[in-house]
Amino acid sequence: MTGPPLLGDRLRGAAWTFLTAARTEQRSMRGNPLLLVNAGFLPVVLLVIAVEAQRPPADRAAQIVTSVMLTALWGSTVWTSGGVLRRERTYGTLARCVCGVESPTVVLFGKSLGATLYGVGTILVATVATVLALRLPVALAHPFWLAVGLLVVVVSATTLGALLSCLFLLTRNGLLWSGALMYPVFVLGGLLIPQDVLPVWLRWVPQLLSLRWINEFLSDAAGPGPSATPLAVAVALTVAYGVVATRTYRWSIDKARQRGSLDHA
C-alpha cells in the first residue's frame, strides 16, 4: 500500500509537466505565420518608421528600441500566447490538457512560457539585426539591470498571455477579440506613444499594462540608471495577472466540464 506522494516528488512532477508543456508549445510555434508577422516583421517596420525622420541620440535610440520591442511583444502575446487554449480547443486536445494528473494551470503557464520564449527570441533577433543595419547608436549603460528587465519581461508576458488565453476561452469570438485588443494597446499602452500625449481621461489605461512599466524601467536602465518603482509596479501587475488567470481558468474549465464542451470549438 503506497502513501501520498511526497512534496519533492510532486514538485518534480509539476516541474517536468511545466517544462514539457513549454517545449511542446515551442515546437508548435515553428512556422506559425502570426509569430513571423508580429515578432519578426513588426519590430523591423516600427524601427524603420521611428528613426526615418530623424537619427536619435544614443539615449533616445535605446528608448525607441525598447518601446518597439515591447510593442511587438504585445502583438505576439495576443496572437500566440493568448491563443494557446483556443488552439487546444480547435485541435480537440483541450480535454487532455485539463484532465491529466498534474494541475491544468501548470500546463497552461508552461504552454504560455513556451510561446513567449519563442516570441521574445524572434523579436530580439529581428531587433538586433535591424539596429545593426540602421547603425543606431544604442547605449547599454547598465547591462545587469537590462538582463533583470528582460527576465521580468518574459515572466510578465507569460502571465499576461495566460490571462488572455483564459479570457479568449470564454468566448467563441476569440479571433475578433484578439484583433480588437491589439491595436488599441499600440495607441494607448504608453509604449510608442508617450502617456502624457494621450487625452487626460485616457491616461489611466497605460497604468494597467505591465509592459508600460517595464518599458520605463528598461529605458532608465539604458540611460541614467534604473528606478525600483516601475519594476515593482510591473511585478505587482504580473502577480495580479497570474491570480486572475488562475481563477478564470479554473472557473472556465469547471463550466466547460458541466456543459460537456471541453472538446467543442
Task: Describe it.
The chain has helices spanning 7-29, 33-52, 58-79, 84-91, 94-98, 104-134, 143-169, 174-188, 210-221, 228-259. It contains 10 helices and no strands. The chain has one domain. The chain is globular, with a radius of gyration of 19 Å. The mean pLDDT is 83. It is mainly α. α3 (58-79) runs parallel beside α7 (143-169) and α3 (58-79) runs antiparallel to α8.
Strand content: under 5%
Mean pLDDT: 83
**What would you call the shape?**
globular
Helical content class: over 70%
Tally of contiguous helical segments: 10
How many whole angstroms does the radius of gyration measure? 19 Å
Q: How is the quaternary structure best described? A: single chain
Q: Which residues sit in consecutive blocks of at least 5 with pLDDT less than 50?
A: none
> How would a textbook summarize the main sheet?
none
Task: Tell me the count of domains.
Answer: 1
- Name the helix and strand elements from N-terminus to C-terminus, one letter apiece: HHHHHHHHHH
Number of strands: 0
Judged by helices, strands and strand pairing, the structural class is: mainly alpha
Terminal CA distance = 42 Å
Keywords: Membrane, Transmembrane, Transmembrane helix
Domain ABC-2 type transporter transmembrane: 23-218
Main location: membrane
Organism: Umezawaea endophytica
